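[INFO] parsing input record for Acyl carrier protein
[DEBUG] input buffer:
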Amino acid sequence: MSDVYDRLVDLLVDRFEVDRAAVGPDVVFEDLDVDSLFLVELLLVAQSEFAGAELAEDLVSPSDTIGRAAELIERQLTTAASP
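[DEBUG] output buffer:
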């Protein structure tokens, strides 16, 4: 997986105390029993972790997978880096 995915997993585990064994690229956030407020907080933390990315509060939904979230964040980082 990508560096963004690895860092996102580290945030989930270290900052939000999600069990690492429960995390995988195909795991849906709903399966982790998280709600949209959790995702807003996750995106705010990720925004400071991934300097330069502007992450909208609704970028990721509870029905998205962790892998999809990493792809969306990576896309935002690429867009922010483009002139």
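[INFO] The chain has a mean pLDDT of 90.
[INFO] shutting down worker
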